[in-house]
Design brief:
single chain, mainly alpha, elongated, transmembrane, transmembrane helix, membrane, DUF3082
């Protein structure tokens, strides 16, 4: 004998606002406010990383190491390049995430949703 589903008493608005993932747990759909807050925080982190990148460049420009050994000079140049590269990688990663979330936020404002019953 098949038993009826115990969750059938849920209204359509409750079931439409949640998505059941493959693991079986329920997750809530993200709304425009979530996209906006993510975009603002990501752009803020991008701005912080950009200011850090500028400071790293100024520091390395003013404090150029002078070593007598060619190997030591080569290693210091590689570390300087890695430090500057990681700073700018973080800057552009946060910037593109912020840009993408801004686009998703704008797109979510224009999507048509079915009216919910409260």
């Amino acid at each position: 004998m098949i038993e009826p589903n115990k969750d059938s008493s849920k209204t359509s608005s409750e079931s439409s606002s949640k998505i059941i993932s493959q693991e079986g747990s329920e997750t809530v759909k993200k709304g425009p406010l979530s996209f906006l807050s993510g975009a603002i925080s990501s752009i803020f982190f991008s701005w912080l990383c950009f200011s850090l990148s500028k400071k790293v460049i100024v520091y390395f420009a003013l404090h150029s190491p002078q070593y007598s050994s060619q190997i030591a000079q080569s290693i210091s140049s590689a570390i300087k390049t890695l430090a500057i590269g990681m700073c700018f990688l973080a800057t552009f990663t946060f910037a593109f995430i912020g840009l993408g979330l801004t686009i998703v936020f704008i797109r979510s404002l224009f999507t048509v949703r079915s009216p919910r019953d409260d």
